[in-house]
Amino acid sequence: MAGNKLSTGILLGAVIGGAVSLLDRETRRSTIEAYQKSSRAISYYSTHPKELSQQTKSKVEKIKVTVEQIQDDFEFLSSKLDEVRDMTPQLKNILVETKETFETSGETYKHALSDDSEEEQNRSDLFLERNNPEEKKTI
Prior knowledge:
Layout: H1 2-21, H2 25-47, H3 49-131, H4 133-138
């Protein structure tokens, strides 16, 4: 008995909801247009069932091709993901080695540049001493 009340309530709610939504003029217009279009399609295909069958077969074939393409794409992506997983440890080692190389090179460059700047400072001081004899006397 509860099943009857539930289905009756659902049906009654749908009818009331549909009636309320049809109070809007644009909704009524679009509903009438959709009904008329459906009626024409039903009438046409009832007189031309072979065409309906042909169109249905065509749509089914297109769906099959699309599904096959999706499966092929999925298999391709899966294989590439497996390759990336296999490459990850190798890539990690390469990146660690590269980082270490840059760090040691950076230290080498830093020392080389700091030595050059000290030599430049010494050269600058020597130049000033040679070209500024007055400073020698005050020192």
